[in-house]
Amino acid sequence: MSEVSMVVNGRKVSGSVEDRTLLVHFLRDNLGLTGTHVGCDTSQCGSCVIHVDGKAVKACTMLAAQASGSTITTIEGLADGASLHVVQEAFKEHHGLQCGFCTPGMIMAAVDMINRHPGGLDEATVRAELDGNICRCTGYHNIVKAILAASKKIKSSSARKKKAA
Question: What are the angstrom distances between the C-alpha of 111 and each of 11, 15, 108?
Answer without folding.
Answer: 20, 28, 5
